[in-house]
Write a structure and sequence with these properties.
mainly beta; single chain; seven-stranded mixed beta sheet; four-stranded antiparallel beta sheet
Length: 120
């Protein structure tokens, strides 16, 4: 069994910063890709950022230059540093990971979500 556990959400004023963390645990062989998605009220879930085990990153245009994704491969943990937050960043943020439990199988997992609220 594999679990993704997020932490670090909260309430912050516009222009402030937050750092989200997500740790994977369980029977894990490797984690090719980890990332963050978000879902605002009344909107579809959208990709925020991803990072591969080799360090390649991808960002949504709306967060480029403000958010930084990173990971600690030894700890199976991914981070999202969010700076210059805007009210439109308010959403539930979900950790997502493609996890290999064996060398030949890959399964996609989701965390439970953490609320980020940015006040104006």
């Amino acid at each position: 069994q594999v679990q993704l556990v997020e932490s670090g959400g909260g309430l912050v004023q516009a222009g402030g910063s937050l750092r989200l963390s997500c740790a994977a645990s369980g029977s894990i062989f490797s984690i090719p890709t980890m990332g963050w998605h978000r879902q605002a009220p009344g909107k579809q879930r959208e990709l925020v950022a991803t990072v591969t085990s080799g360090g390649s990153t991808n960002y949504a245009d709306s967060v480029k230059g403000r958010f930084t994704i990173s990971r600690d491969n030894a700890k199976y943990t991914v981070y999202l540093q969010m700076n210059n937050l805007k009210p439109e960043d308010t959403a539930v943020y979900y950790c997502n990971a493609d996890i290999r439990r064996t060398p030949v199988t890959v399964t996609n997992y989701w965390g439970q979500g953490t609320q980020v609220t940015v006040s104006s």
